[in-house]
Amino acid sequence: MNRKSLIRAASVSLLLAPALAAAKESPITDSLPPVFQAVADCRQLTADAERLACYDRNVATMVSARENHDLVVADRATLRETKKGLFGFTLPKLKLFGNTEGEDIQEIETTISLVRPAKDGYAVFTLADGARWKQTDGGKSWAKPGDKIRIKRGALGSFMANVGNAAAVRVMRLAN
Questions:
Q1: What is the pLDDT of residue 70?
Q2: Number of neighbours of residue 49 by Cβ within 10 angstroms
Q3: Torsion of CA 80, 84, 85, 87, to 10 degrees
Q4: Beta strands in 26-122 (DSSP E)
Q5: What is the C-alpha separation between 49 and 83, in angstroms, rounded?
Q6: Domain ranges of the chain
Q7: Looking at residue 164, what DSSP letter applies?
Q8: SS3 of 72, please?
Q9: What's the rounded Cα separation, in Å, for the pair 110 and 98?
Q10: pTM of the complete model
Q11: Series of mean pLDDT values for 10-residue runs along the chain (176 residues)
């Protein structure tokens, strides 16, 4: 993952904190943000000039909200990449990513960019996207930068990693 993608993933992480706090206070609904709803409401106007003026006014407001970071627009591919970047973290079930039921990331495949030993002797892997994972059991890791790694969900919230063709070892996601 490049620097731009890392910044995007970090931004999403920063956006999660207020969302988590707000989730405790109010339920998340499927309603559209008011700035978006105003544009959608323009469709109901029958007079062409009135409808066009409504669109022009409300689209300008929407663009301004986007530029001021009050409105975030993302397509499904961007959401999927963001979810991959958050793979391994335990997050509450929020509709932050829209209606993506059944689209949970079950595994990721990438390359290792850095390997270092932890104090306990197990390996800490830094992946191409900057995510850090720590081996928590198994034998000594002989992984090196450039090796392929596949991390998948295990039982009871655990994660298993295969480096190259080696046997799977248990790993846990570390905060960057």
A1: 80
A2: 8
A3: 140
A4: 107-117
A5: 42
A6: 3-97, 107-174
A7: T
A8: coil
A9: 26
A10: 0.49
A11: 49 48 48 84 91 90 85 76 67 52 73 89 88 85 86 85 86 84
